[in-house]
């Protein structure tokens, strides 16, 4: 082991040489998918190797994994730390645990790549598995402290503006209609000009939420920046925790970064994780405001009930 790697190992340890508890093995694949886009290419090779072959990599020393991926020992250790493990030894333990889970049959042996000639039954199975994986990855990587803070802000907000375009705009509409049904003031904005002109009116005590998978959508970042500068509490829901939108966010909620394919663009995979985060926000707010939320929700159901009964015959 080189002196550089020894220094990195030493820095990984806290006071007294102790290390914080590493993430659970099941969270490893989710971490790789979420963080890979922000890694250097050499670190990506290490991350992809451990995610694709946990059993094989668990058997390798730090030197062996560096040779396998064409990187350096220092890169391997830095990748382990970025994935949340105090050191390479901890990463190897997680890999061994993940390999054991896979060998036990708990991990489905199915690919999510969809070919143009796949039977429709295979398409259903592959999409269902991918949706499940996206939800599991998002749940594993979601910072519940940040989520709780966002819920607190929403529950007491005088007004909430939500920004999103394209598929993210649909998620923005979903969140606002949920908040409206429990008696809160909320607006979804997909028009960038309208979003900015509304953001100018926000003040301290209001909330602005930006939904963007890439984290670099200018039409979403601009109104969030304006809201941030006006003193509103700002929240970013994104698949890139180090993206430009986060510099104007008081709270960042990260969604899974699922793999794209020609027949399954990011707009599909990202929407699944975003909807989970939106539902978590809504349920959290409903819990905090239950005394007012429950009657408001009942009233909205009652107001629409006759529309659902209109087509029925008989008594």
TrEMBL record:
<dbReference type="InterPro" id="IPR047640">
    <property type="entry name" value="RpiR-like"/>
</dbReference>
<keyword id="KW-0805">Transcription regulation</keyword>
<feature type="compositionally biased region" description="Basic and acidic residues">
    <location>
        <begin position="1"/>
        <end position="14"/>
    </location>
</feature>
<dbReference type="InterPro" id="IPR036388">
    <property type="entry name" value="WH-like_DNA-bd_sf"/>
</dbReference>
<dbReference type="InterPro" id="IPR009057">
    <property type="entry name" value="Homeodomain-like_sf"/>
</dbReference>
<protein>
    <submittedName>
        <fullName>MurR/RpiR family transcriptional regulator</fullName>
    </submittedName>
</protein>
<keyword id="KW-0804">Transcription</keyword>
<feature type="region of interest" description="Disordered">
    <location>
        <begin position="1"/>
        <end position="24"/>
    </location>
</feature>
<dbReference type="InterPro" id="IPR001347">
    <property type="entry name" value="SIS_dom"/>
</dbReference>
<dbReference type="InterPro" id="IPR000281">
    <property type="entry name" value="HTH_RpiR"/>
</dbReference>
<feature type="domain" description="HTH rpiR-type">
    <location>
        <begin position="26"/>
        <end position="102"/>
    </location>
</feature>
<dbReference type="InterPro" id="IPR046348">
    <property type="entry name" value="SIS_dom_sf"/>
</dbReference>
<feature type="domain" description="SIS">
    <location>
        <begin position="150"/>
        <end position="291"/>
    </location>
</feature>
<dbReference type="Pfam" id="PF01380">
    <property type="entry name" value="SIS"/>
</dbReference>
<dbReference type="Pfam" id="PF01418">
    <property type="entry name" value="HTH_6"/>
</dbReference>
<dbReference type="InterPro" id="IPR035472">
    <property type="entry name" value="RpiR-like_SIS"/>
</dbReference>
<keyword id="KW-0238">DNA-binding</keyword>
